[in-house]
Amino acid sequence: MKRKSLYSRGHRRRSSSEGGSSYETPVWLDEKPAPPVGAQLAARVRKFSTRHERSLPAVIAVVLILAAFAGWRVVHPDPTALSQWDIDNAVKYTLSHTDPPPADTTIAAATVGPSVVRVEGYLSPEHAAAEAKAEQAAIKKDKNAKPVPLRTPDGRQDMPDATGSGVVIDTKGDILTNLHVIRTTDRWVITFWDGSKSDAELINAQPENDLAVIRAKVSPDDLKPATLATTGGLNPGDTVVAVGFPFGIGPSVSAGVIAGLKREFVDPDRKDDGGHLTNLIQFDAAVNPGNSGGPLVNRDGEVVGIVTAIFNPTGQHVYAGMSFAVPIENAAKAVGENPF
Fold first, then answer.
1. By the 8 A CB rule, do 297 and 111 touch?
2. Residue 127 CB burial class (10 angstroms; 0-12, 13-18, ≥19)
3. Is 251 within 8 Å of 207 (Cβ atoms)?
4. What span, in angstroms and rounded, lies between the C-alpha atoms of 81 and 128?
5. Rounded CA gap, 125 and 136, in Å?
6. Half-sphere exposure of residue 221, counting CA atoms within 13 Å on the CB side?
7. Which are the catalytic amino acids?
8. For an engineered disulfide with 244, which of 90, 93, 113, 165 has Cβ 3.0 to 4.6 Å away?
């Protein structure tokens, strides 16, 4: 079958090498040159934006938010998970660079300290003279009798006839102490925490618990009553602190534990006038003559008892490992009320 000849629509100029007139590459008369790539992209963007004119702002906003979030995560990466090793080392570092806190006994003593007072008892000149006469007669009768203490010309001793401790329990200046601290004297002088002094008067007494309440005639402006606490929560082994003036020295602090509750004690010096005490707190903090009437406090510095006696099987009036205090519930009755 005979093929149909195909002819180009353009005209070609014959080049000089072909031995004739030169020809150029044919060009379509209606063909336009291709636009630049940048212009093509711009046109497509305009076309896309026109087609999605309504949804485009929302898309742009979402993109910007995602970009901002991604940038924030780069600046604020997730915290590194701590291992147990990291935690243990952080705790060790903190403990090694931190001063240890004060002991519970230190806090307790500092809490009740401003409420503790020294109680000194004196005999009036008339009573002092009568006592001196009786002592002189006893010396003549018994050569082993104790000598009469030196007294001033007015009949009073240079030193107090009795020394003990007490604790302020209200803003009126009422002070709890032991009855045996003041019973042999008729004039009492109170020395407060700040060193100020005042005469005191007897307000109430509770012989069955060896307790007395005296009131200072002049109290400091910053008088700080102690906080009283029930003994209902006390147990053997609990830490307690005693604050007072043993042998007149103080205020002195000693610490120990509750050894027992609801103990009984018979005062050998008071057998004739009912020195049988019951429902006592037994504790092992060191106390001595002069501590009598002072507070026994718990680890929070709250008064749970009033120090009243020590037991020494040798008969000497010094600490031998066993001490007793009247529970604060009994002491509160001496004030005339029981808040517990």
1. yes
2. middle
3. no
4. 82
5. 16
6. 0
7. 180, 210, 292
8. 165
107-123+161-335, CATH topology level = Thrombin, subunit H (2.40.10)
The per-residue DSSP string of 253-308 comes to: EEEEEEEEEEEEEE-GGGGGGT-EEEEEEEE-S---TT-TT-EEE-TTS-EEEEEE
- 108-135: average pLDDT: 84
Cα separations in angstroms, 226 against 60, 105, 135, 166: 72, 16, 40, 11
Using one digit for the tens of pLDDT, what is the confidence trace for 131-174? 666 666 666 666 555 544 444 444 444 688 899 999 999 999 99
Q: Which two tokens stand for residue 311?
A: 């037991």
In terms of DSSP bridges, do strands 303-311 and 322-327 run parallel, antiparallel, or are they unpaired?
Answer: antiparallel
Where exactly are the structural domains of the chain? Answer: 107-123+161-335
Nearest-CA neighbor of 113 among 188, 173, 168, 178?
A: 168
Residue 41, number of CB atoms within 10 A of its CB: 10
